[in-house]
Amino acid sequence: MDFKSDLRERKKIVDDAIEELFKDKKGLQRIVVESMEYSMKAGGKRLRPVLLLEACKMVGGNIKDAMPFALGMEMIHTYSLIHDDLPAMDNDDYRRGKPTNHKIYGDGIAILAGDGLLNLAFETMLEKVNSNPNFFDRGIRAMHLISKASGINGMIGGQVVDLESEGKEIDIDTLDFIHNHKTSALIEASINAGAVIGGANEREYENLKTYGRSIGVAFQIVDDILDIVGDEKKLGKRIGSDEYNKKSTYPSIYGIDKSKQIASKLIEDAIESLEIFDEKAEFLRSLAKYLEVREY
């Protein structure tokens, strides 16, 4: 299996769907649509939609049913990045190697673009739910998982605690809360929603849930490490922002070596949770390994 080739193939499927999503969405409000489209097409791994589609396929589902939810997840993720980059939050000038949204369109349009993506995410998912009565229960359950993961009990809650913790020494429980909610919640919800849409049984769902939670936290720990030792050109954003903003991270509490060990253990747990899927889980196994070593 050529993992990078398979990842590019899956990413292209998502990119093509994003291209279709923004076709003909213009009018007097076109500036905000252009702003939304700018950030949605600025690159990125498409990790969350790829995870959602893969989980759906693994349990016997159809990725055409899952695509509106995959797009919704990517729109929610992108809106969070637009807002996260704003001067009132992390004040970043570059994202994925390109100027951040507010640097191109200004703070006001960037805020509205984020709002627009959040709203369009749920419009897109609801169109799928409303178009097929037989899909209603699975669709609503998936949307509930996604909305909870992106709200005050998920990503937004994690962002709040992250902001409130800047410049303070925090304990590991608080840091784990931030990681589990700000980053891991959307990754886990991507897997969970895909499993629901695909019709997973209880055992399949719980194992995929363990996978999502494990790689979600590992992903953020690796991000914390890369903010210290990463290559800005490869990452497409500045490094050292955590130290500049006086944020507590796994490396600041445990050191880089111990943080790598913790991430490795989480990746092991993720891979172990996939045993029941046999060869069908080969892509997700390879993805977990990739997330651990990216750009070290």
TrEMBL record:
Keywords: Isoprene biosynthesis, Magnesium, Metal-binding, Transferase. Its cofactor is Mg(2+). It catalyses: isopentenyl diphosphate + (2E)-geranyl diphosphate = (2E,6E)-farnesyl diphosphate + diphosphate. Its EC number is 2.5.1.10. It is an enzyme of class 2 (transferase). PROSITE patterns: POLYPRENYL_SYNTHASE_1, POLYPRENYL_SYNTHASE_2. InterPro entries: Isoprenoid_synthase_dom_sf, Polyprenyl_synt, Polyprenyl_synt_CS, Prenyl_diphosphate_synthase. It holds the Pfam family polyprenyl_synt. GO terms for molecular function: (2E,6E)-farnesyl diphosphate synthase activity; metal ion binding. PANTHER family: FARNESYL DIPHOSPHATE SYNTHASE. This is Farnesyl diphosphate synthase.
